[in-house]
Design brief:
By secondary structure, the protein is of the alpha/beta class. The chain is about 45% helix and about 10% strand. It has 17 helices and eleven strands. The strands form two sheets. It has a seven-stranded mixed beta sheet with strand order 1-7-6-5-4-2-3, with helices on both faces. It has a four-stranded antiparallel beta sheet with strand order 8-9-11-10. The model is unreliable at about 20-25 (pLDDT under 50).
Amino acid sequence: MLFPAEIAERLEDRLDSLHERESVGACSAASLDPADWPAFRRQAHVMLDDMLDYLEQIRRRPVWQPAPEQTRARFRSGLPLAPTDLGTVHEEFLADILPYTVGNAHPGFMGWVHGGGTPVGMMAEMLAAAMNTNAGGRNQIPVEVERQVARWMADLFGFPAGASGLFVTGTSMANFIAVLVARDAALGHQVRGLGVSSLSHRLTAYASREVHGCIGRAMDFAGLGSDPLRLIPSDDRRRMNLRALADAIAADRAAGCTPFLVVGTAGTVDTGAVDDLDGIADQCKREKLWFHVDGAYGALAMLAPELAPRLRGIERADSLGFDFHKWGQVPYDAGFILVRDGELHRQAFACQAAYLAREARGLAGGSPWPCDFGPDLSRGFRALKTWFTFKVHGAEAIGASIARTCELARYLESRITSSAELELMAPVELNIVCFRYRAPEADRLNRELVIELQESGLVAPSATSLDGRTAIRAAIVNHRTGYAEIDTLVNETLRIGRSLHARRKGDCA
């Protein structure tokens, strides 16, 4: 085995040899590295400073603005064949791309459950890009970084030492993986070869009617069909009704179906409701069903001591999907899947291909690899920006940021309930607040109101429908959001609502 000093000496010898060769110039000409490294370095510092300025001065920008047609037209040109100066392309980025993003880095963004990212995460992403690591596997420390984050999360959520964890694009992919593992656990891993068409009975799954649409898609992608996903009624807090769940399971068993999976939600997409996870775990234990938790954003409430008790029972899940890029503020994308039984997880994706053969030493060592736990062989180094975020900020600070967004939600709730012109549309459980402006033809008016709020550039909520009624939905996720943005949301809603109401009255006069 070569020691670092010996390796360094050999590399120096090799470099000297290369410089002596007449062909080195020809080799460099074929490379895509800069021909002038000092000039490239100067431009790189300009680009870095521009993005740091962007984040530091984010409040001076509109949350969102529509792109002009002439800007959109610039993205319909053909494939560039000749090179363009890096500085010129960067100026095009600053003028035509950066101003027209969705705006979730801005503290006034409340439209969907998007995290705001951090400068630390941005720098880590740059480091990962420079390394250009394929984190699918092999004997390398980036895989150990991912394993360390997996152990952190297993500890956080009370999963056992044998649990497995994997970075994925987001919770949609995490939920899909969970459905596949649950399917194989119910049918045996031979289903991977035989296919679901060999089944003599129908598998059925259960989730609240408030569940994210990706669960039905996961059932579809797993070959089970979306129809066997039974959507269970919710209670007055929009949590899954456990009595209705028990009845649905019993009815399916009586009809000859095979129940196999229950999905609990920790933070529903519309209102932030948290299912009774402990109660679901009890039913799954009695019925011998796989218990999966879709904790896309709500699961990380475990980092906030004042919120963690609301997730009681999450530690009993067979699998859990969540996103670091939401409440964890890691730059997109950084989803994660935890599975209690790591061996079941591995068997659901194991592959015997010769090019993935493992060795005890060398680059083919370090088994099992991340690619043994999911569908992707080519994987970016998502773990690094997550690792940096936790190492630099610490879990306590991230948890405090999460608790703060819930505090702001309660403040927004108080502002809504103190105004006769506004109506609270659902209980405020975590950090999502659904409300609307009271008026005749309120559905139509509030849809228009949301658009005008977005186009104002000051705040950007979204619209949703609750029990057939249009609501303004404010998802307070960004760590930069404060009381000022909440006051702006309420004040602008009242101003625009009054204006729209008066305009409609005038049209009817």
